[in-house]
């Protein structure tokens, strides 16, 4: 009986510790979001005179319309949507085709190419921007939305490895059967392999989509024109040498979160399935 009670107490303690840790990290994750939401409804005077965690005395809804208008967020959302769709489509096609070649064709240097891709992930992107900026300038791609899209479509090493891992579980007999029926390698890739890569594709789209939507450094570096700014850099309209308008910045942040939240709520089933089935294969 004593052993049973000890085991029960141990299980209860483990469960309590597990939920305590989850609640602790959830709390500290939600605190900045709560502070941003509260600040978004304050005017300048109230923001300067009250704590960031205090509710506003008067809920100022004009901050949202003002932030949307002054930051040209309508145009910024359109630019971000164009960039996001183009980059995701191009990145998925390029990454899956590279993974198809590296997985299906055994040639001298195959292992070396994989190692070079892995080595490329160790290089900080900021450190290579001098060379990239020089290339972009010589090609006349700076301050053009299509130039930024082409640069962001560059090889995504993480997506390549996700596709390779998933492709290793697709039997080569499918390729052989298709070749016997007269299909070429492009047909095999497009009509057989790519449809089977749906979980890996969803995983890659999530990772690439989040990084692309939130990307600030390169967007600020290559998109200087107001008409081609993305959402990530449109919020910096309210920053300057004379001070920062944090209430408008927070209102803009809340507005920028809404599209991502809607997409997540509508596609959460596919997102969870894609992460579960495509992220780890082997």
List key phrases describing it.
282 residues, mainly alpha, disordered C terminus
Task: Describe, in plain words, how this protein is organized in 3D.
With 282 residues, this protein is mainly alpha-helical. 73% of the residues lie in helices and 0% in strands. The protein has 14 helices and no strands. The chain has helices at residues 2-39, 44-49, 62-70, 73-104, 110-121, 129-138, 145-152, 157-167, 172-180, 185-196, 198-214, 217-222, 231-234, 246-278. Helix 4 (73-104) crosses helix 8 and helix 4 crosses helix 11. The radius of gyration is 24 Å and the shape is globular. The two termini are 45 Å apart. 24% of the residues are buried. Mean pLDDT is 86; it is low at 278-282.
> How many beta strands in the DSSP annotation?
0
Q: Specify the helix fraction band.
A: over 70%
Any idea what the shape is?
A: globular
Oligomer: single chain
Describe the biggest sheet?
Answer: none
Number of helices: 14
Strand fraction = under 5%
Task: Break the fold down into its secondary structure elements and pairings.
Layout: H1 2-39, H2 44-49, H3 62-70, H4 73-104, H5 110-121, H6 129-138, H7 145-152, H8 157-167, H9 172-180, H10 185-196, H11 198-214, H12 217-222, H13 231-234, H14 246-278
Task: Briefly say what this structure is.
Helix content is 73%, strand content 0%. With 282 residues, the protein is mainly alpha-helical.
